[in-house]
Amino acid sequence: MTCLTVFIISVALLMVGLWNATLLLSEKVFMDWLSS
Fold first, then answer.
1. Domain named YiaAB two helix: which ranges (predicted)?
2. pTM > 0.70: yes or no
């Protein structure tokens, strides 16, 4: 594994984590809005 490969993998994982967090947050806000 080269440094570039490790860098690309870590950036990809970071993007996936941010994407999941954004989806979870927006879903929670949407559910709160629906129930109010």
1. 2-31
2. no
